[in-house]
Amino acid sequence: MIWAENAALALTYALKGDLTGLRIPPAGPPRIADRLWQHTCFEVFIVVKGQPTYYEFNFSPSGEWAAYAFRGYRDGEWIEDDGLHPEIVVRSAASIFELEALVRLDRFLAIKPQVALGLGLSAVIEENDGTISYWALKHPPGKPDFHHPDSFALELALPDKSA
Predict the structure, then answer these.
(1) What is the DSSP secondary structure assignment for residue 150, as one 8-state letter?
(2) pTM (global) more than 0.85
(3) Domain residues of the chain, as ranges?
(4) DSSP strand pairing (64-72 vs 31-32)
(5) Which CATH number fits domain 2-157: 3.40.190.10, 2.30.30.50, 2.60.40.1190, 3.40.190.150?
(6) 132 touches 125 (CB < 8 A)
(7) CA 96 to CA 61: how far, in whole Å?
(8) I need a labelling partner for 1 at 20 to 30 A (CA). Which of 18, 117, 122, 154 fits?
């Protein structure tokens, strides 16, 4: 994860190992799609520290993506904004699969330079038999819940581009 120009967040997710048992959606045209978490996808959750609101972005290897805005824990809605259009690039080899996503955060009023952010990076991985596993930098106690405040394990500040 790195900051790119214009308050864009560049994320790289990598799966390493025997990929033959995984169900990875084939590449297609980029488009908004809902319920991507029901299959292999990669996610980032972004919260402004001290605020109840947060955002969720889903990136599918197919090129599909989704964005959601939440007023509080799991209280939110789907964002239908083609202007968000994250750039998604996929690379695959025998034992590694990478997905890169570039998300512009300057479209969100709550995310301003020098504000402290909490990020939760996660992945939903589907096997060929339909089994799904949930991966995150940090899981709260109990069942996986990417929306739980404990899942926002990374802390950083949006760089001030005026400096």
Answers:
(1) G
(2) yes
(3) 2-157
(4) parallel
(5) 2.60.40.1190
(6) yes
(7) 13
(8) 18
